[in-house]
Specification:
The chain contains six helices and two strands. By secondary structure, the protein is mainly alpha-helical. The protein is elongated. Keywords: Ribonucleoprotein, Ribosomal protein, RNA-binding, rRNA-binding, tRNA-binding.
């Protein structure tokens, strides 16, 4: 099992798919990495040599922000918005949708499980 950027990459999957297990690498970046290193995307991770895995690891470290650094950067951006007390920061602080979605009926993912209202009878 190859370990890249602190993530165990599944060995029986294709290289392009396996690279997407790393937080911050999607389909486009995975394809870009394999093309830059001239690795055939259809190859499996178990068929890669140690030098190719090392090349992938070095390329990701040099050119992409992934895993812990990316999560930290995202958290700092949200914290900055909250400290500024701008509209988006207030929405983050209250746990409500940030990008203008309606909250009257939907938004259960952000708001959490619905709470019963005491004394509301017909």
């Amino acid at each position: 099992m190859a370990r890249i950027a602190g993530v165990n990459i599944p060995t029986n999957k294709r290289v392009v798919i396996a690279l997407q297990y790393i937080h911050g690498i999607g389909p486009a970046k995975a394809k870009q990495i394999t093309e830059a290193l001239s690795i055939v995307p259809e190859r499996r991770v178990q068929d890669l040599t140690d030098s190719e895995v090392l090349q992938i690891r070095e390329t990701i470290d040099a050119t992409h922000t992934v895993e812990g650094d990316l999560r930290r950067q995202t958290a700092m951006n949200i914290k900055r918005l909250m400290d500024l007390a701008c509209y988006r920061g207030l929405r983050h602080r209250k746990g409500l949708p940030v990008r203008g979605q309606r909250t009257h009926t939907n938004a259960r993912t952000r708001k959490g499980k619905s709470k019963a209202i005491a004394g509301k009878k017909k």
